[in-house]
Amino acid sequence: MADGNERDDLPQATVVPKRRTRVSIVWIIPILAAVVAVGIAVQRVLSEGPTISIVFKGAQGIEAGKTFVKYKDVNIGQVTAVQLSEDYTRVTVTAKMAKSAAGLMVEDAAFWVVEPRITLSGVSGLGTLLSGNYIGFEAGKSDSRRRDFTGLEVPPIITGDQPGRQFVLKADNLGSLGIGSPVYYRRLQAGQVIAYNLADDGQAVEIKIFVNAPFDRYVNPGTRFWNASGFDVSLGAEGVDVRTQSMVALIAGGMAFETPPFAPPAEAAVANTVFTLYGEQEAAMKQPEPLAKRYVLYFTESLRGLSVGAPVTLLGLPGGEVTHVGLDIDPVTQRLRGRVEFVAFPERLVEQLIASGQAAAGESIARSNRARQDFFEQMVEKQGLRAQIQSGNLLTGQRYVAFDYHPNAAKAKIDWSQERPVLPAVPSTLPDFESKIGSILAKLDKLPYEAIGTDTRKVLETFNQTLKDTDKAIKRLDSEVTPELKKALEEFRRATVSADRAIKNTDAALLAPDAAGQQELRDAMREVARAARSLRVLTDYLERHPEALLRGKN
Prior knowledge:
single chain; alpha+beta; seven-stranded mixed β-sheet; seven-stranded mixed barrel; 13 helices
């Protein structure tokens, strides 16, 4: 019991809760500063735009912290770093973009360095001479976000917001065209070339053009494009034809387009429609001939001057064109002969017949092979229609094929059994004409030009001597004969004056019974008689000696 009481006397333990330590007021300021710093950092992160990287071939004029990225002349970013790529072949430019431009950083966005440039389309970037180079930007239309880009070497010619449409042209070669070359419509600039590349098959060149609004609505599936660079000079049987669009096209190259009148009405072509680029306007605007027929001609004469594309005329009117000029072996004589293939256009003959009121005959010839064969057989067999090579231009030496009537030509028939019927031909008269010209030139060459020249010089010398003698005779006449003639005339004049004076005094002197003037009258008459006698003697002498007028009195 004693032990239990002793335990009761021991003091009882109590649980005392631990008192919390208060934060010192000194720590409040650093904590608040930290909170503010974190808030500012978060706000800055949220307010900043994305960081992008652009790869260029070079960094000319680009400096970190100075060069801006501009869109429509508004700063949307700034370059923060410029460094070489890992393979040291390119330059990586890091730029910090504004938050407002974050939505523009999409897949097809474009970047390029803006600097002074002189191109076919003009001069650009002159403002950078004072402000320095900057990075240009063109917004894309994609919805995919992107942060790394490859910069363009040259700025795009057409911006995304420019109204108009883009088309693709295929040509055999680029020619003198280049980026910025103008595109004309009725001699008005309607667009320009924006890009070109070699086709995937390597057989053509693809040229991308942009046609501005409202000219793009005049481009439809039937529109024809042709190269209008420089001078379009054509030397053919029709003569010399020179065409050009403008001085800009003459220097920088260009192309033109137009819808031919025979094209059916159609809606405007959609963007990226593919067209063929023709080499010249004549080929582009040529009307297709669905009923065109091919024929063959054989000639034994030279085909020099006859080329592909030469016209084929029917009675002087165009009716086809040459498609091939070559050689063939005559199966009968085993000799070489000229083979000329040409295509005929029955539609043109039909148009002429319809215009003359013979619509039924024209339609029959155009639609029926049998009718067309009968028509040509009648003209060939009965009327003597033959093909002949004629000279189209003496200056260029171009020739063409002419169909005309030759009644005296040998009988012939058309071989319709061949895939391409053979039409009869007659020899050209050009060789005879050339031989005659050669003969004339040969005769002229045989003339003794030196002897003719010598004789001509002798004749001229004789003529010159005659002129000198004539001049001497005239001088002698003036010095010898002329004074005597003047003396006779003077005596005759004095006698005439005396006679006149005597007549005036007739009433007073001559008619008076005792007039003393009768003696004066007799004297005057004697003077007249002497003068007349002297004049008669001179006249008789000149009749006997007319050469005295030139040589004088001997």
